[in-house]
Design a protein that fits this description.
By secondary structure, the protein is mainly alpha-helical. The protein has one domain: Amino acid/polyamine transporter I (Up-down Bundle), CATH 1.20.1740. 73% of the residues lie in helices and 3% in strands. The chain has 21 helices and six strands. The strands form three sheets. Strands 1-2 form a two-stranded antiparallel ribbon. Strands 3-4 form a two-stranded antiparallel ribbon. A two-stranded antiparallel ribbon has the order 5-6. A hairpin with a 2-residue loop joins strand 3 and strand 4. Helix 10 packs across helix 17. The longest helix is centred in the middle third of the chain and has 45 residues. The N and C termini lie far apart (68 Å).
Length: 526
């Protein structure tokens, strides 16, 4: 049995390395660069507009929203942030610094800058190609722009057009299957595993933790782990089985609280060590471009590792290009595809430029990472434990380490909301494959799987889940690249109408009946 698991681990490791390190990272960054150039650096040239139309738009009475069967734009943002702001923003940033040094943070910023336009494009396409489901809700995502978008590309060759149509259908099905599998793994069990581990580390209940239910390979499953898993399953089940409206309502209330909580705590730690902020930023920039990198293969490998660590963690954190966020963003009540795309720019900005940067500065200013030698001063600290150590440097009172409690609560909120968000991603993908009436089956399986995440001892499950997460990315990016002309065309149409005041017909939907309906509603709002 051990040899079989080792073989599976080796095969998965090779596939994961191929997808993430040899293809995926470069394809993601390349797509972001291409779309940034194609849209005229939209995230920079229209920064004031997209801020005004996202957060500023919440206070605008002109919502440009469609009524019925959908969630608000803010609810869509919160649900997307719920799924993306997770363990990666805490443990992932710490791992990037441990693996690649502080310079990895700079490359996270680079990945986020170009990822803004990848996220913008995929969500624009998600809204543009979405449809109404049987229950009246919007259904969209990479599955829909792959199926309908690639099938609509006009080519001089009828054979090529037919091949693109078939390719679109195949890629849509593959994406949906990979999304369902990833939702059960990285979006469910992986999050629960982190919640349980951090709660057990921060708060011990000997009555429960001393009761071993099962032991294998030196790893023990305790009654404490099982109890936490059952509590999470019950809480998540009440939200998930309530459908999209309940998920969105939950996210709308919890996400702002958890973001404000973590931002406030991080800012407090950083200000307590404010004398090191300048040194931290200087170290990030210097180690991102080590002059010694041009000398010798060893140094070149070091710089390559720094860049790779930053790119991978940045992408893992904000999920731009994976196609996952399009599923919830397509459920928004927005009429303008560009408007939802701008919300995606804001989401990537918040996730990486704000949350991940604060995590990095917390670590680099606290003293748990020596800025001069590059050594970890806390023995054995990696991932979330490194962040915990950073908080404990300021928030320890006698023998009471409040920092550990704070980080455990933050990971609980981040991971739990990620789990809730991914349940919707998986449900929509399952709906695409098997129809609306079977989505309840998926939700029940998803909720039941939560307990497995609390008691599973093998790390191979998480590695396989990471591979499925990466496999989602390939068909999604193929679709985005092939439909880049549609992205540019819809974007220019929006700029001409909304910013330049040209009297031209809007481009709101690929489907004629939806286009006519939305165009009529938009006309009445003027």
């Amino acid at each position: 049995m051990g040899e079989i698991m080792k073989t599976v681990e080796n095969i998965n490791g090779a596939i994961n390395d191929l997808i993430w390190l040899k293809i995926g990272i470069f394809l993601l960054i390349g797509t972001g660069i291409f779309l940034t150039a194609a849209t005229g650096f939209f995230q920079l040239t229209h920064i004031g507009h997209w801020f005004k139309e996202t957060i500023g738009g919440l206070f605008n009475k002109k919502s440009y929203a469609i009524s019925g069967g959908s969630v608000s734009q803010f609810q869509a943002l919160c649900t997307t942030l719920a799924a993306t702001i997770g363990v990666g923003n805490i443990a992932g940033v710490a791992d990037a610094i441990v693996i690649g040094g502080p310079g990895a943070v700079f490359w996270m910023w680079v990945a986020a800058f170009f990822g803004m336009m990848t996220g913008y494009s995929e969500n624009l396409l998600g809204v543009y190609f979405r449809q109404r489901s049987a229950n009246g809700e919007w259904s969209g995502g990479a599955m829909y722009y792959l199926k309908y978008g690639l099938g609509s590309i006009e080519c001089r060759s009828k054979i090529l057009s037919s091949l693109l149509k078939k390719l679109g259908k195949i890629l849509a099905v593959l994406f949906a299957y990979f999304c369902v599998l990833a939702s059960l793994g990285i979006g469910n069990m992986g999050q629960v595993d982190k919640i349980v581990a951090n709660i057990e580390l921060a708060i011990d209940f000997p009555v429960l933790s001393s009761r071993v239910i099962y032991s294998s390979g030196g790893q023990a499953i305790t009654l404490y782990s099982l109890t936490i898993g059952l509590v999470i399953m019950l809480a998540a089940g009440l939200i998930i089985l309530g459908g999209l409206k309940r998920i969105a309502s939950f996210a709308e209330k919890i996400v702002p609280i958890m973001v404000i909580l973590f931002v406030s705590g991080s800012v407090f730690i950083i200000l307590a060590n404010c004398g090191k902020i300048g040194d931290a930023f200087a170290t990030i920039l210097v180690t991102a471009f080590k002059p010694s990198a041009i000398f010798g293969g060893g140094c070149g490998f070091t710089v390559s590792r720094v860049i790779t660590a930053g790119f991978k963690r940045g992408v893992f954190s904000n999920e731009a290009g994976l196609g996952s966020s399009t599923i919830i963003n397509s459920s928004s009540n927005v009429k303008e595809p560009v408007k939802q795309g701008m919300w995606s720019i804001f989401q990537v900005f918040t996730d990486t430029m704000v949350i991940c940067t604060l995590t990095a500065l917390t670590i680099l200013t606290s003293g748990v990472y020596d800025l001069k030698t590059g050594a970890i001063t806390e023995n054995g600290a990696t991932g979330s434990t490194l962040v915990t150590a950073a908080f404990n440097r300021v928030l320890s009172f006698g023998n009471f380490d409040f920092g550990g409690i704070f980080v455990a609560v933050a990971i609980l909120l981040f991971a739990f909301t990620t789990l809730i968000g991914w349940s919707h991603y998986g449900a929509r993908a399952f709906e695409y494959l098997f129809g609306t009436k079977y989505t309840t089956v998926y939700k029940i399986v998803f909720v039941a799987t939560i307990v497995l995440g609390a008691v599973m001892t093998s790390s191979i499950a998480w590695d396989i889940s990471d591979t499925f997460n990466g496999l989602m990315m390939i068909p999604s990016l193929i679709g985005i690249i092939l439909l880049s002309k549609t992205v540019v065309r819809v974007t220019r149409n929006y700029i001409d109408r909304r910013l330049k005041g040209k009297d031209i017909a809007p481009l709101l939907s690929f489907h004629e009946n939806i286009q006519n309906q939305l165009e009529a509603e938009l006309y009445l709002e003027k």
